[in-house]
Specification:
Elements lengths: L7 E5 L3 H11 L4 E8 L2 H7 L5 E7 L5 E7 L21 E4 L3 H10 L4 E7 L4 E6 L5 E6 L4
Parallel strand pairs: 1-4, 5-8
Antiparallel strand pairs: 2-3, 3-4, 6-7, 7-8
């Protein structure tokens, strides 16, 4: 068996409209598919959830695509806001940007909560922020080649 590249990352959100404002209006992602799923046996089996009713949004993009899941008849718990950097689970999602300083200023002026200002790391320049439901998002500027 050979594992290939990451195909998508799915985030369960408490409020789809707020999440779309963040990912579409602020980050500029484009919606590729927005659909309602209800009682789909295959999806229920894959997710391990019975009587599923949810909104599913898929964004366009290169590499791994981001999916948002908005469950309508199951209430989830917000664990991302409680996670500490050393807790176990998915830590963050990183998006490549052309200029992290510019992205930091633009998003900060629109009220985005940043965890850190842009920092030069050994690999690149990056800043971290919180998205809807507390998901940590890294803005990652690759070094010039």
């Amino acid at each position: 068996m050979k594992i290939g590249e990451v195909q998508h990352i799915a985030i369960s959100v408490s409020n789809m409209e707020e999440a779309l404002k963040f990912y579409v209006d602020l980050l500029g992602l484009e919606v590729m598919m927005d659909m309602e799923l209800e009682g789909d046996p295959a999806i229920e089996s894959l997710l391990g959830v019975k009587n599923i009713k949810m909104r599913y949004v898929l964004f366009t993009g290169k590499g791994a695509r981001l999916n948002l899941l908005g469950f309508k008849n199951q209430k989830g718990e917000n664990i991302a806001k409680r996670m500490r950097p050393y807790d176990h689970g998915i830590h963050h999602i990183a998006f490549i940007v052309d200029n992290v300083e510019d992205a930091y200023k633009e998003l900060g002026s629109k009220g985005v909560e940043f965890i850190s200002a842009p920092q030069q790391t050994g690999l690149a320049k990056a800043a971290t922020m919180r998205g809807p439901d507390g998901v940590v998002i890294e803005l990652f500027e690759l070094p010039m080649e």
